[in-house]
Amino acid sequence: MESLKSEFPIFANAEKEGRTFIYFDSASSTQKPQSVIDAITEYYGGYYANVGRGLYWPATQASNEYAKARDKVRNFVGAKSAKEVIFTSGTTDAINKVANAVLLPTLEADDQVLVSEMEHHSNFVPWQQACIQKGADLKVIPLTTAHTIDLAALKATLNSKVKFVAITAVSNTLGTKNDIKIIVRLAHAVGALVLVDASQLTLSERIDVQKLDCDFLTFSAHKLFGPTGIGILYGKQALLERAIPFSYGGGMVALVNQDETTFADLPAKHEAGTPNIAGAIGLGAAIDFVESIGVAQIAKHNAALRTYTVHLLNQIEGVNLLAEDAGDASILSFTMEGIHPHDIATFLAEKGIAVRAGHHCTQPLLKSMGLPATVRLSFSVYNDQREIEQLKTALEEIKSFFG
Ligand SMILES: Cc1ncc(COP(=O)(O)O)c(C=O)c1O
């Protein structure tokens, strides 16, 4: 894993400029390897054209690369068909699309939608607003003391009025992991559909949508070494076929006349307008990068760094680690007695150490834990033990600085 850092040009560039740059914010967005940057540059500089229409060589090459990227995603998540892979602008966009095009048209007053207490705002607010619009009930499933979804509470809440369950696989604040397979089975037993927010799962375990049996699953490329502005929505083919189009316009139609329009087959039906071609190609290259290392290997590396961090930070009196035992996670949140998380992040930033402080877009979770904010560390393939030792030294300095 040591050698992987050299594949990410930002670190060598920082060093050339004499800057320290230790990046512990990969849960927010990962850095980009040269291969992803090159794939995007090659498209713009080597065969740039729009997809799906032109018959000349850059157009056919761009269309082929765009299709190849979709197939890489299909393989990455274990979908049956590339028709089940819809490109979106990211997780947030995908969730809004499912809430508006799948849930909203059939949601009625007194129906119920379930989310959990640990959801990112992106997997909370769209469902909350859909419920408000239709007078339906949003139920928030609490967590166990181990900070995972309380399956007993979930079971007790599920009933035939529940239309939809939207849950994250991994908490972006604590790193804890939910048992998606069981949750899907329980939800299906009452006839509810399930969307899995896999934003933090992609580098934690091999995703297999067929084994999970989830109805929808989404993630953003930028947390997976890929570019911003692109993500995917996996949906079971029958559900995507049944859904009204996510938006209307060019590229998603079969036949248009003055009175009516028939729509294209999947996946085009849900991808109106010129897509993010460079983004899709960049995502394809990011998947190649991940596959060349292996998700299991990446997860093992990240989990080992987290374990080492737990070990070192526990040596500092006043540091309170949250969900310390979340075994194979790559995320670790903590607080320090008497020092505000923002002061810690500011102090670390001055030393070139990048961490996150705040609510991490999970205000309901932090409220339930009685915390205004945490400091969040998240690890990736370019981090190593030496960096964690530097972090420890910096935290000790902060402690003595604040007395
Ligand atoms: C669990 C989770 N869900 C959703 C999102 C939103 O992702 P995006 O901003 O890429 O749409 C994030 C991003 O931090 C996340 O961690």
At the fourth CATH level, what is the homologous superfamily of the largest domain? Type I PLP-dependent aspartate aminotransferase-like (Major domain)
Distance between the termini: 38 Å
CATH class of the largest domain: Alpha Beta
Which CATH architecture of the largest domain is right?
3-Layer(aba) Sandwich
Shape: globular
How would you state the average pLDDT, rounded?
A: 97
- Identify low-pLDDT runs: none
Q: Helical region count?
A: 14
Largest sheet: 7 strands, mixed
What topology, given as strand order, has the largest sheet? 2-8-7-6-5-3-4
Summed up, the domain count is: 2
Question: What tags apply to this protein structure?
Answer:
seven-stranded mixed beta sheet, single chain, Aspartate Aminotransferase, domain 2, alpha/beta, 2 domains, 14 helices, Aspartate Aminotransferase, domain 1, globular
Question: What's the topology here?
Answer:
Layout: H1 9-16, E1 22-23, H2 34-46, H3 57-77, E2 85-88, H4 91-103, E3 112-116, H5 125-134, E4 137-141, H6 151-157, E5 162-168, H7 180-189, E6 193-197, H8 209-212, E7 216-220, E8 231-235, H9 237-242, E9 253-256, E10 261-263, H10 277-293, H11 295-313, E11 319-322, E12 331-336, H12 341-350, E13 353-354, E14 356-358, H13 363-369, E15 374-378, H14 385-401
Parallel strand pairs: 1-13, 3-4, 3-5, 5-6, 6-7
Antiparallel strand pairs: 2-8, 7-8, 9-10, 11-12, 12-15, 14-15
Helix pairs in contact: 2-10, 3-10, 11-14
